[in-house]
């Protein structure tokens, strides 16, 4: 298995040694379908980890276990040094507040404007904010994703790329320390996909976030990854940098880069 290259002084983000995410021997089955069969990996502070794998390899299930949306059958899931598999729902919610999740379809409320979508999320977790502070936070986060002018639009008025940006803004408004991206560029044209990938990199550099990025989009993987793991048959088949894996002699691994 390829190993992560040592961090050099030229790396733009300083990554601490202690991982913010550490998954050990994670198992998950649905009936007789064994999806995860002992997956182990970690993510350092400020690191972008890309997860690749064919459809059904368990990529999305792994990150859903990470936030308790799906219960693991067995294994340890340490987030910020706490094993979330041992937490009750209130304790788990305290961890979830520190984690942003960008769903594949952006998951906006169609009956709410952009302002209302963002405000709804913020009000649930920051109840003491004044109306002025709430508005300022909404404006700031929209400007950070380049969509300040969309504040009064409805989701139906937004393009696919704009919806992704608004979904990302809703994730960022709570200032998460970890962001989980589930197919962030799926369904987007090449130019918009590149813009979303570049925005993800800007967020990493500006906010020092740690991220897990599930994608089939290899240009996105190349732009955003510090390290890549590839799942096969419920286990990690290989890991390394984009450049290392692209040169792999394993034909199955190389098939991702064609």
TrEMBL record:
Task: Report the residue ranges that make up the ABC transporter domain in this protein.
Answer: 21-258
| Record-level Gene Ontology MF annotations | ATP binding; ATP hydrolysis activity
* Keyword line: ATP-binding, Nucleotide-binding, Transport
InterPro entries cross-referenced by the UniProt entry: AAA+_ATPase, ABC_transporter-like_ATP-bd, ABC_transporter-like_CS, P-loop_NTPase
Q: Which PANTHER family match?
A: INTERMEMBRANE PHOSPHOLIPID TRANSPORT SYSTEM ATP-BINDING PROTEIN MLAF, PROTEIN TRIGALACTOSYLDIACYLGLYCEROL 3, CHLOROPLASTIC
What name appears for this protein in its UniProt entry?
Answer: ATP-binding cassette domain-containing protein
Which organism does this sequence originate in? Answer: Flavobacterium caseinilyticum
């Amino acid at each position: 298995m390829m190993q992560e290259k040592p961090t050099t002084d030229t790396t733009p983000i300083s990554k601490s040694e202690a991982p913010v995410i550490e998954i050990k021997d994670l198992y998950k089955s649905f009936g007789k379908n064994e999806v995860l069969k002992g997956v182990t990996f970690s993510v350092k502070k400020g690191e972008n980890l890309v997860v690749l794998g064919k459809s059904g390899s368990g990529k999305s299930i792994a990150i859903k276990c990470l936030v308790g949306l799906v219960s693991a059958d067995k294994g340890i899931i340490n987030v910020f040094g706490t094993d979330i598999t041992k937490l009750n729902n209130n304790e788990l919610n305290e961890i979830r507040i520190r984690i942003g999740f960008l769903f594949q379809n952006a998951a906006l409320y169609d009956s709410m404007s952009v302002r209302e979508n963002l405000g709804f999320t913020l009000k649930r977790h920051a109840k003491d904010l004044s109306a002025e502070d709430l508005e300022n936070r909404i404006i700031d986060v929209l400007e950070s994703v380049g969509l300040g002018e969309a504040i009064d639009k409805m989701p139906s008025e937004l393009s696919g790329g704009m919806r992704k940006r608004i979904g990302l803004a809703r994730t960022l408004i709570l200032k998460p320390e970890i962001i989980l991206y589930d197919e962030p560029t799926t369904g987007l044209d090449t130019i918009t996909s590149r813009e979303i990938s570049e925005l993800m990199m800007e967020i990493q550099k500006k906010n020092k976030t740690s991220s897990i990025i599930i994608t089939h989009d290899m240009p996105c993987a190349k732009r955003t990854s510090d390290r890549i793991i590839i799942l096969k048959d419920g286990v990690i088949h290989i890991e390394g940098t984009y450049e290392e894996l692209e040169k792999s002699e394993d034909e199955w691994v190389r098939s991702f880069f064609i």
